[in-house]
Amino acid sequence: MKENINALDEIHKGACMGQDALSIVLDKVEDQKFKKELQKQFDDYDYIAKEIEEVYPKYDDGEPHDTSLMNKAMTEMGIDMKTMSDHSNSKIAELLIQGVNMGIIEGRKILNKKEMDEEVEKIVSKYVTMQEDNLDVLKRYL
């Protein structure tokens, strides 16, 4: 049971972190095609987060973990600093790829443990596949 909660919490944090980063960079993107791709990724993260929020009560009375206000602030400051002089599609894609790679690694580690219910495993797998798809899209903008 604890593995289910841990998996859901980690994936929820990853989805929230992805949304946080995308909401910051969306304002910096001028290329409408790239912006549309990033908005789709934001919506995908939102879908995963909501799916987790729906199943979470089966495993725990609380709420799934979110990113802390400190993490959100650090993310925003980091992105702002790294895009201050270069907010090109390439630079934004590079920054997002770093986060996506962390999400893929975390998701794969969770999947490799295989100590969770099938329902939770499907959500984690969907998250990893989504991240891998996002990576492929972002690579085109480097």
Protein structure class: mainly alpha
The averaged pLDDT comes out at 93
Per CATH, the class reads Mainly Alpha
- Name the poorly predicted regions: none
In N-to-C order, the SSE pattern is HHHHH
Question: Would you mind describing this structure in some detail?
Answer:
The structure is a single chain. The protein is an all-alpha fold. It has a single domain, classed as Up-down Bundle (Ferritin), CATH 1.20.1260.10. The protein is 78% helix and 0% strand. The chain is built from 5 helices and no strands.
Blueprint of the fold:
Layout: H1 2-26, H2 32-55, H3 69-83, H4 89-113, H5 118-139
Helix pairs in contact: 1-2, 1-3, 1-4, 1-5, 2-5, 4-5
Task: State the gist of this model.
The protein has 142 residues and is mostly helical. The chain is built from 5 helices and no strands.
Task: List its traits.
142 residues; 5 helices; mainly alpha; Ferritin
